[in-house]
Structure formats: C-alpha cells, structure tokens
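Page header: ASSEMBLY MODEL / two components / 954 residues total.
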Amino acid sequence: MAYTRADFQTDQEVRWCPGCGDYTILASLQNFLAEMDVEREKHVFISGIGCSGRVPYYMNTYGLHSIHGRAPAVATGVAVANPDLQVWVITGDGDGLSIGGNHLIHALRRNVNLKILLFNNQIYGLTKGQYSPTSEQGKVTKTSPLGSLDYPFNPISLALGAEATFVARTIDMDRKHTASVLEAAVDHDGSAFIEIYQNCNVFNDKAFEELTGKETRDENRIYLEDGEPILFGPNDEFGVTMGRRGAEIVATAAAGMDTIHTHNAADPDPTAAFALSRLSHGPHGPTPIGVFRNAERSVYEDLMTDQIAEAQAKRGEGDLAALLRSGGSWIVD
Amino acid sequence: MATETEDRAESTVLEQVVIRFAGDSGDGMQLAGTQFTAASALFGNDLATLPNFPAEIRAPAGTIAGVSAFQVHIADWDILTPGDHPDCLVTMNPAALKANFDDLRPGALIIANSDAFNERNLEKAGYETNPLEDGSLDGYHVLTAPMEELTKEALIGSGVTGRAVLRSKNFFALGLLSWMYQRPLEPIDSWVTHKFGEGEPVSNANLAALHAGYNYGITTEEFHHTYVVNPAPLPAGEYTSVNGHQALAWGLIAGAKAAQLELFLGAYPITPASPVLELLSRQRHFGVKTFQAEDEIAAIGAALGASFTGHLGVTVTSGPGMALKSEMLTLAFITELPLIVIDVMRAGPSTGMPTSTEQSDLLFAMYGRPGEVPLPVIAALTPSDAFATAIEAARIATKYMTPVILLSEAYIANASEPWRLPDLDNLPEFPVEQATRPNEGSVFLPYLRDPDTGARPWAIPGTPGLEHRLGGLEKQNLTGNVSYDPENHALMTELRARKIEAIANDIPPLEVYGDEDAALLVLGWGSTFGAIRAATIRARDDGLEVAHAQLKYLNPFPPNLGEVLEGRDKILIPELNSGHLAKLIRAEYLVETESLSKVEGDPFKAVEIEDQIRLVTKEIA
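Prediction written out in full:
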C-alpha cells in the first residue's frame, strides 16, 4: 500500500483563491493520507458549505459535499453504517460553528469516530467577506460596517465544553505540526476535533499574524506536548501554571520549574484542558497549539455494534414471521 | 336483530356495534379500548379502531381538554371504518360525557361511572345540573355504576392501597363492557398477567377489578340485557391486530430484507411519528440501526450518510419535521441516493394539533422543495397497508436511486384493524446490486445511468477503484464532476425528472371499484380509503351508481388515471385538507373536480361522504 500524494489528488482543478491557506492544508492532508496505513477506498470525506467544503472534490477518495453545517450529521450516518471506514469531516468557522453548531457538539458528545477538521479563518470567505462566529467583536465587514456586535466563540473551549475526547489546534502554514496533530487524531478512538488556523488572504489577511509572523511566532506559540511541562518562548523563558483561577503565564525562572504545569492530555477531567484554551482569545499573545485533550471514552458506533451483537445473542437473529406475530395472532378457518 | 335467552340474561344479536371509551387522559381509556379490541379480535369479529387523545400528557383532570377516548367498531362483516356514531359510550366522568355526547347516535347506550358525577367534576365540565339525573339524557339508554367504590371494594387484599386503587377502575369498566358485549375475559387475563407479572400487586388489582366489573354485570338487574356480535366471515388465514405504526415499522424491516440491505433509521422524536422510532429501536436483533438524532435535519442527514454507505436509509417525522428536512431531501435527490422519508401527517399549520389527523402535507410532499426536485410520493391506505407501502417505498428508492416520500397519517398510524398475515415466502424480492467494478472501461462513471431505469450506479465507500465524489453542486452528466455548464444543467434537470416520471410504468394501474362507468367517480388518496369505500358501498346498496378509486401513488400518478377520469359527469374528491389532490388533478388532467374538504382533525365519517354522494348524484340527474 505504498501511496504517494498523487494517489490522493483528483483531476479537478483546485479553485481556491491564489494564496489561500486551504492549499497548504490540502497538501498536508494528501501527504498525510499517502503515509497512512489505510486503503484509499476506506477514506470518506464529508464536508459542508464554504471554502472548506470543496475539499472532497480534490481528494481522490470517497466523498460527499453535503449541505451547510450538516456534515457531522451525514458523517455520523456513514460511520455508523460502516465503522471500518476512516471518516473525515471538513468544515469551517461559519459552517461548523454557526449554522452547524448543533451537529458539531452532538457528534462530539456522542464520540462518533469522525476526524473533524475545522478551518478557522474568522470570516465568511465563499460569500465574500461577512463576519463569522469567530470574528472578533468590533470587526468591520460588509455586514458589520460599524463593527460586529457578536462576541466570538473560542472553538477549542466549545469543543471541550461539549466534552469532545480529542481536541487540538494547529496552523495551516506549519505542515509538520499539522501532520503530527493529524496522526494523533487518527490514532485516537472516537471524535477528534482539530481547529486549523487558516489564513484567508483575500477577506481576512494576517488574522493569525502573531502566530505565523517570523518576528512574533516564537514568543507566541505555546506547543502542548503530552507529559511535558508547558514552556514556551525562544528559550523556554515562559511557562504555564495551573492554579485555582485557571491557567496563567509566568516567567519560568521567577516562578520556578516546580510550579510549571505538566500537560496531561489523557486526563479524564477536561478542566485543565479548558483552562489552557482560555489562555488566548483572538488569538492574541501566547496561544497554545497542539493536542489539548486526548482522552478515552466509548465510541458511539462500537456501542451500536455491540448492542446489535448482544441483542442477537440474546434473542437470536431477527425473525420476521415472529415479529409479525409479536402482538398475538389467531386463526380464522 | 334476534333476541335469545342465555342464562338469566337477555341477549340481542347485533351485526355491528360502535363503542367509545372516554375518560380523563389518566384514566387508562386507551388501554381499556385496546384490550376490548384484542378480545374482540380473538373472538373473530372484524374491527377498526380510532384513538383520540389530547396533545397534553396530563391536561387538568376532569376538564374537557383532558378527555381521552378510544373508539372501536366491531362487526360480523367486513368493515372499513371505526364507525361514524357510537352506539355505546363508556364515560368515566362528566367531561368525557360532554366532549363525546354530540357524536352519539340517537338512543345510544351510555354507561357512566356515577362516582365521578360529583359537584366538582360537573362544574369543571360546565354542567349546571347532573345530566344523569336532570332528564337531559332522556331518549338515551343510561346505565350507571359507582365504578370507583366498586373498584375499591374489589381491590381489598390485592396489595394495592390508597389512591393507586382508582387506577384500576378502567379494568372495572372493561370487565363490565366485556359482560355487556359477551367478550371472553381470558385474553385480557393473560395480557394482564404477562404485562404486570404473575402475582404482582398491580396484576392482582387489575384482574380483581376486571372480574368485579364482569360479575357486577351478571348480578345487577339493569345490566342483564347483553349484546352479541358474532364472528365475521373473514377470509381464512392467520390474523393479527396492527396499527399503522407497527405495519410501517415491520414493512421497513421487510423492505430492507427484500433489498438485502441493512436498515438505518434516523429520527427525532415528534408526535405522532415517534412510535416508528420506538418500535424499530427494539429490533436491534434484526441488525436495525436506529439513531435518535439531535434534530430533524441530523436525522435525515445521518440517514442519507447511511444510504451513501450502502444501507437502506430511512427517516420518519411529521409536518414540521418535513419542513426542516427539505434541504437535505434536495441533496438526496441530486446525489441520487435511495432514501425513504416518512411523513406521519398531523393537523397543521406549525405545531397545529399534533395528535389530530389531516392530509394537508400533500402539496408540500409534491412541491415543498427549492429547485426542480420531483420525488416519488406514495401513501398508505389503511393501517395494515402501511406494511406493503413501506416495502414498495424500498423497492422504488433502491431501483431508481431516489428518495421516496411515504405519507402516513395520525389516523391510520394509531388506528388498528385485523390483518391477515402475508405469506412471507411470497413477499416481493428486489436484491440490490451495488457497483463493484468500473462501468466504462477502466473508469467508473458515477452518473452513467441504467438504460432501463435511468438509475445511476450505487458504489459504496470501501469499494476499491470506485472512489468518487458526490455533492450538492450540479453534476456533470456521467462523471458527476461539478459543472456550471448551462446545457448540462438543463440535461441533468431533464434526466432526473424523466427518471421519476418513468416510474409510472412500473406501478400497478388504478383500480376502479363499483360501477366502473358511473357518471360519478369518487376519487380519494391515502387514509380516506375506508370511509370512501364504506360510503360507496352504502350508496350502491341504495341503488346509486358510483365508482370509487383510491390513489396510493401520488407521484407519479398511475398511468391509467387519465382514462379513469375520462367521461365522468362529476369527480368528487374527499380530502382531509382544503383540496390538494383536487388541485393536482385539475392541473394535470384539465378536468373539473368537486372537493369535499374536511379539516377538523378527525377522519371522515362514512356518512359525510355518503351524504355528498347522494347530493352530487341528484345534481347529475
């Protein structure tokens, strides 16, 4: 099963705007799939509407470009119908958090084995530049000429609030980091939610500049490594402590290494992961990227399979003749 | 009618009787009615039932809003409806009497629980004086029994005490009615034991009340006159009693089996459709996957995802849910995946009257989607017919790779009738062949159609070499790639429409009952079958010339419908809506129609249609 990226490319012309972060994410995905130990025909990409929604057309796998916001629902049907498939959901901040917010949180709480990639560019791109549920308050767009009144979602906090078992964040331009997060996501049993900071160079350029610009990125990226103390800065001069008031950024030397929080992604209690998600909003300043949470919980479609097997063991395989007589029957001569 | 003497009791033999059990929604009237029905079925009568319950689970006790009723029509002949006017009303309180009195036939028998006719309850029901005593029921045959006191006495020693005792009073009423109509108690006894557990206090209490009611009838002078409805000469075979929900759920299992597919049901609880989800949730041992979704859209979305993955995807809902599902339905249509969408219609608009019946979603089922989205629409005609209708929906969906809308209705969903069990060896079989290899040399074209059916191939994820992408953007013919080409769009629109139209050649012709060439044709669809047929029979028995045809296939129409309509002086179309089918018939066939509309939340009474047949016949003459 030696695949190359080309095996996952279709003959369809990729039609995002030149310079769009989606190209990089697509390349990361195709490269990652080529290295995965999964047959091509077992991958299924389900998307909603928006720029991200076009991904399935460019992936030479099974795919369904569904309707706005509903990809997690459609994907749930796919995963339940055949738990052997590797099901991906491609969504965006408008698709997944606005019109489709309900389906997203319910897929996460059920822990359906879906790998959900949310391309967050903090803007509506396909409809040409209206504010989205992750746009900052006060943002001036075509539909908010005097500034947006909406307070934005923090997608990581939201996913953790829905008790998603796997929650991570990565950045479009950082292909190596993206690959590592994807790998952890597919190794995880159950729903995986990955927020990908994605630059929309046409309608919301440089929204993530603080994390991507050469000048600022080293001081602002807090890489979360499971089992490691959370340190950041060019020389690990900063760290994160976990106190009663949540996570706080401290100077490592002044606070002392023994006060620095050691990241435990597998913690069954999502409280610390949630605290980490509160470190940054916007994002402005130091922002955690990596896997916030990677905890175990039963997977929805496995429970379904088990329930069917148990019912068949207990009652035998369904017998239609018996079912039709379940309310009693009588003979007329 | 004949009179005979049996023991000490006078017995009148009736050809048929319509009995209505009415009480508070907490009085257990549905249960009493259902058990009376089951005993009658076992006795061999033909029967039809009509439950009627409030939307509120527990409306204030003793009020008219809280009245729950169950009507059963039993007969020694093949009946078609739950009956127009009750011959007997069992009323557990004044509100139940008030709410149901106007429906009774003149001179009907009223059996009242006199304990409940106290000042407080009379006031709640809006009676100034006690109707059992003030002469307002003169002309009716009124029998009273202090059912609460008698139940209390009967339950001494049962292990049930306090207020809980009164919960068994429905069994007292049931026992009394079983005596009055000479029903055997054994089937009810065994049901109670099975349901509540042998020797359990609740079991003992219900059995004690049941037998006390029966014995009260034997020993009390005023109940000495009993009635007998002899078994009906039904065609020989094995029968069960089903309601439309059960028949539908079982039909879906049978349909999936016939297609050799696994069944996936995505649904969100909604009245009156939820029982289908409940019934199928119990069938895990059939491999049935039921998914209670977070909303109506997710329910159909997951069903579509399951269809994409090779299952028979089904979703079931009622009117408001249909509105929410319409966008996903358009995706199912353009991706040309099989899917069954069941609408158990209820009275609208909006939340409307959720427990009441109506046929007012027909035009929505036909046209309620943006874009050019014609879909097959079929309707169940009777409770048991829902079984065959579900199988037919599975056949059309998988053969033509299309979503199918199946219309059921609150009335037939909750109504029950005896059903001669089908021969399972002779059920239709239509095993689905999913694509396994490329269909154009070494290439797989997901929109290369079957020349006979116009259906595209169904290649499911996991099949090597057939990887392809579906979606809501317009499809290029053959390749299924995204296409904005105007001519391609016109072509695809036509191909999709033609595929649905051509289903007309694959469905049975419309049958005409009665006087085939009559000047008057009564044309109905779906659940009005029983009432229209009963009205037609009565009119013809009276010498009128009438033809009746009932549509199961609403889109496409049966190919001979044009001929059936031709040359009639009048086409009378009774519908539980403001004239949806009439509009379709006029638009499609350019013929005059006359609507008989009813939107009162109840099914037609046969007499309402019969009266109209008489009127129209006079006009023609």
